[in-house]
Specification:
Layout lengths: L3 E7 L3 E7 L6 E4 L4 H11 L5 E3 L5 H4 L2 H8 L2 E5 L11 E3 L4 E4 L2 E7 L8 E5 L4 E5 L2 E2 L2 E2 L7 H12 L6 E4 L4 H11 L4 H15 L7 E2 H7 L8 H6 L7 H14 L1
Parallel strand pairs: 3-4, 4-5, 5-6, 10-13
Antiparallel strand pairs: 1-2, 2-3, 7-8, 8-9, 9-10, 11-12, 13-14
Helix pairs in contact: 4-9, 5-6
This protein binds zinc ion.
Zinc ion binds next to loops.
Length: 255
């Protein structure tokens, strides 16, 4: 049986996600921005929390861990490089490690840049990826602890996943990201198509997440720093892609 997911908003614009294995009943919360919305989601679904899979140490991804762990005695899985900065970690994981949620299996991708130890959880069989604050729909996380070159390499890893992989990110920023992306690639038809789709979703009060890697490759300027037209658009034709990425990220920070 395939994995089930349940997406909900937390805090101001964070996403919480539950991942459920119908075969065993195991359920993971991907990050834990705050306890109450996770509890509400568990109530709504009738699922029992077995695991918390943490992408990075920021408080808006970890603030709910102590309360949830106390109530559910769940296992906390977290990046090795940030385990000391995350509460109550049971298992610290690195690149290529496997993590099971019941019968579902994730492979760890280290995706540093936003934070120095940030990881993503990829479930190849279910074609799902939980990418925290590394990749957003039509955007990416701020490069806070790493370098632009490091972040570009992390984005390349995610870009290498199969096109149909569904991407769950940590925040609902899609509309603002599209507004910015159209300043880089105003004539990108796939970006304009995503813009129209997102306007409809927002008008219907629906989430714009998940998207797919295929959609992001076609329309997300941060995954397109090695496309000649994109380099040209920011005045860096012929320069290494990570430099083009750094320029796009700097422009977004100022926007
Ligand atoms: Zn963060």
């Amino acid at each position: 049986m395939s994995a089930q997911t349940h997406l909900f908003l937390c805090l101001k614009d964070n996403y919480g996600v539950l991942l459920h294995d119908p075969e065993t009943g195991a359920t993971a919360s991907i990050d834990a921005p705050e306890a109450a919305p996770v509890e509400a989601a568990l109530q709504a679904t009738g699922w029992r929390l077995s695991d918390i899979l943490v992408t990075h140490h920021h408080h808006d991804h970890t603030g709910g861990i102590p309360e949830l762990k106390q109530r559910h005695r769940c296992r906390v899985v977290a990046p090795h490089g940030e385990a000391a900065r995350i509460p109550l970690v049971d298992v610290a994981v690195r690149e290529s490690d496997k993590v099971r949620v019941g019968s579902l299996e994730a492979r760890i991708l280290e995706t540093p840049g936003h934070t120095s130890g940030h990881i993503s959880y990829v479930f190849p069989t279910d074609k799902l990826a939980f990418v925290g604050d590394t990749l957003f729909s039509i955007g990416c996380g701020r490069v806070i602890e790493g370098t632009p070159e490091m972040m570009w390499q992390s984005l390349l890893k995610l870009r290498g996943l199969p096109d149909e992989t569904r991407i769950y990110c940590g925040h609902e920023y899609t509309r603002a990201n599209i507004r910015f992306a159209t300043t880089i690639e105003p004539d990108n038809a796939m970006l304009r198509a995503r813009e129209a789709e997102v306007e409809k979703l927002v008008a219907a009060h629906k989430p714009t997440v998940p998207s797919t890697i295929g959609q992001e490759k076609a329309a997300n300027p941060f995954l397109r720093a090695d496309v000649p037209e994109v380099a040209n658009a920011v005045g860096l034709a012929g320069r290494p892609p990570w430099q083009v990425f750094a320029e796009i990220r700097a422009r977004k920070n100022r926007s």
